[in-house]
């Protein structure tokens, strides 16, 4: 009996995108950014990402990678734990 070859990546049609979670995270980023009085373009520059990408994150259209979450937290001068706590708050309070 022959072994089937291992295929890399997700199965066709599979997704890990969770719209509610993406919106909650984006809302948390926007809240922290506005609380600190930072413009979206400035935060994007500080985090080293495109402004349009940050806009998609804040609108919940894109779920950032772990590396980008760390960059955003660093640019906001907060820990990733603060970002995650804010995200959880957005989810539990139904603000998304």
From TrEMBL:
Keywords assigned: DNA-binding, Transcription, Transcription regulation
MF-aspect GO terms: DNA binding; DNA-binding transcription factor activity
Signal peptide: none
InterPro entries membership: Cro/C1-type_HTH, Lambda_DNA-bd_dom_sf, TransReg_Diox_bact_type
Domain HTH cro/C1-type residue range list: 29-83
Short name of any one Pfam family annotated for the protein: HTH_3
UniProt keyword Transmembrane, yes or no: no
Keyword DNA-binding: yes
PROSITE patterns xrefs: HTH_CROC1 (PS50943)
GO cellular component annotations of the record: cytosol
PANTHER family associated with the record: HTH-TYPE TRANSCRIPTIONAL REGULATOR, HTH-TYPE TRANSCRIPTIONAL REGULATOR SUTR
Protein name, per record: Xre family transcriptional regulator
Protein source organism: Eoetvoesiella caeni
